[in-house]
Amino acid sequence: MDSRDVFIMLCVVLLAAHSTLQQDSPKKKNGRKDAALNAVIEEMKKQINDIVQELTLLKEQQALQTVCLRGTKIIGKCFLADAVKKTYHAASEDCIAKGGSLSTPVTGDQNDALHDYVRQSIGPDEHIWLGANDIVTDGLWVDQSGSSVRFKNWETEITLQPDGGRGQNCAVLSTTANGKWFDESCRAEKASVCEFNIV
Ligand SMILES: [Ca+2]
After folding, report:
1. 169 near 133, Cβ under 8 Å?
2. Greatest pairwise CA separation for the chain in angstroms
3. Cα 149 to ligand 1 centroid, rounded to whole Å
4. 183 CA from centroid of ligand 1 (Å)
5. How close is the Cα of 102 to the center of ligand 1, in Å?
6. Which residues sit with Cβ closer than 5 angstroms to ligand 1, an ion?
7. If residue 33 lies in a helix (H) or strand (E), which one and from where to where?
8. Distance, CA 12 to ligand 1 centroid (Å)?
9. 183: Cβ–Cβ under 8 A, 6 or more apart, which residues?
10. What is the block-wise mean pLDDT of the chain (199 residues), using blocks of 10 residues?
11. What is the model's pLDDT at position 2?
12. What pLDDT does residue 11 have?
């Protein structure tokens, strides 16, 4: 036999084998087995996904607990101070990287709590960045989500804040001025506090 004959014979054998396999009745049994196996695999995949989701949630909760233990907890959120002085944008990005955002008190009580915490954790003579700026439209102060800031605590008795116009577009809380707010150049370097929402 030459190689051409061998090739033809191989083709015939393969065709015969293929048709035998197709006619074979155990094929149906195998089909049922495959379906059952696929169902088991799908169920296992679902369970693994559920476990991964639960684990992610637990990790997030644990991270939040660590933040709350290291920082301080008020109703609905935890604060964590960072004494390292940096620009507004660097401070904001660092908070986001930790899963939070620059602290933005929305009530007088929250402002007082933040003020007390900054005095205790960073010092009695400090300014910290707040999550509020008027970068886009001068005079229109927005929070980290871009919403208009409703609660404001500007210092208005001595210096009538905010008074920096286009040159000062980021807000700080001052511990020397009893927790009052001032506008400041966003490129200035200040300490900061990140806040983390407790769900
Ligand atoms: Ca401004």
Report:
1. yes
2. 109
3. 14
4. 7
5. 18
6. 134, 138, 169
7. helix 26-70
8. 85
9. 134, 161, 162, 163, 164, 168, 169, 170, 171, 172
10. 52 51 60 91 95 91 85 92 98 94 96 96 95 97 96 96 96 96 98 92
11. 53
12. 46
- In our burial notation (b when 16+ CB lie closer than 10 A, e otherwise), range 139-156 reads eebbbbeeeebeeebbbe
Superfamily of domain 71-197: Mannose-Binding Protein A, subunit A (3.10.100.10)
Q: Is the peptide bond before 162 cis (omega within 30 degrees of 0)?
A: yes
Distance from the alpha carbon of residue 135 to the mean position of ligand 1, in angstroms: 7
| Residue 21 CA to ligand 1 centre (angstroms) | 79
- For 37, the token pair is 């196996």
Distance from residue 167's CA to the centre of ligand 1 (Å): 6
Rounded-to-integer distance, Cα 102 and Cα 87, Å: 12
